[in-house]
Amino acid sequence: MLRRLAAGVALTLVATAAVVGGLAVAGVIGPRATPITVGILHSRTGPMAESERGVIDATVLALEQLNERGGVLGRPVRWVVADGASDEAVFAREATRLIEEEGVLAIFGCWTSASRKAVRPIVEQSDHLLFYPVQYEGCELSPNIVYLGAAPNQQIIPAVSWSLDRLGTSCFLVGSDYIFPRVANAIIRDQLTALGGRVAGEAYVPLTATAMDELVERIVAAEPDVIFNTINGAANAPFFDALAEATRDRRRIPVVSFSIAEVELQSMGDLRSVVGHYAAWNYFQGLDRPANRSFLAAFRARFGKARAVSDPMEAAYVGVRLWAQTLEEAGRVSPAEVRRALRRQSLEAPEGVVSIDPETQHAWKVARIGRVTEDGGFEVVWASDRPVMPVPYPIFRPRSAWDDLVRDLYTGWGERWSNPAGAAEYVAGESAGPEAAGPRPGEGAPDRGAAGAAGEVGG
């Protein structure tokens, strides 16, 4: 993949390639200036590959645009793409290789929290930077990670409040079996307790799961008002198909998802099983904003008119732009110098104004909830009035209690960030007494308002 540098002069191109997972991926180096090398670390193989492919492409688009405008600090940018293979151990190994062998000055990567957790000690020990583009469970602060996706109070918590007001108070929690869904559901449980909701049941399935009949049977038997879904990757398709089949002649149970975006919808093909359900994100590709129209036009001109664009893809694109903007301001390329200057950065992104919080190194972001439409997009049904300040540690427990929960999961899984058991696990719900069940929507449910958790109410 060779791209010309549009810097006003003709440059002789030299391709530098890294063979990763059997694929040769090349960046571009100009002969007159030492290139700045960065790493792109995402899954090209395994169950997360479909979701992460677009994030790679959005990152490459942003890097190519930098080179077309003359690079950064007058230097071209070279990138090396590494395959995390949907495996936290591979992510850790590839992060080490990128830093020690490829000499990258920043890594743009990771999707699952398991992969991020595996990479974290590596970037911390080497004092490098990871730009992480995906919403996550919070309960973490690292000086070597820039958190570009939503913290819990910018996605999970406002979505739960909105759902309790509009969909019902009896909730079934389902997720993939690794650190993000486990902690996310602990947050949801705490919030339900605080707001008078009820957990009708809880279940976890492997990332590779394809058989969903037993899970769906348990959900239908529990008769929840709403399902909160933290399943990631390819397992979402069989889950929604099984749920649609099981409720064909019954009341449809609305699903609010935290890891399904336009890319995942496109990969499902037949959307009848997901149309009308909900997802919580900070960005939807249908946002009618000039910056978003420009982003979509550039992405589709480069990668194809039919390609869908998702929240993590937009966050990855914004992450590269923030990094480059920071380098230009700092006049330096070292991770330590970049980190200090990064905390003053803000820019107009496709989703709206994104600013890096100087205290947490998380992004201020608008919270949004969308309903799946027949064309594979989302209709925004709720949004915060303005960007929400990130709060990585939810207020329901002391920070030490959250840290204990995270550590206990890690040690309980044999010092891994995902459950190695490889089988579905079911957790009993709460008994449904008259008080626990609460009113259904339209029967006098109290208006808690999403502001109770996110600090804003909009739309």
Automatic annotation (TrEMBL):
Superkingdom of source: Bacteria
Pfam families documented for this protein: Peripla_BP_5
Spans annotated as Disordered: 425-459
InterPro entries per the UniProt record, alphabetical: ABC_urea-bd_UrtA, Leu_Ile_Val-bd, Peripla_BP_I
A GO BP annotation: amino acid transport
SUPFAM superfamilies (UniProt xref): Periplasmic binding protein-like I
Protein name, as recorded: Aliphatic amidase expression-regulating protein
Organism: Tautonia plasticadhaerens
Gene name as annotated: amiC
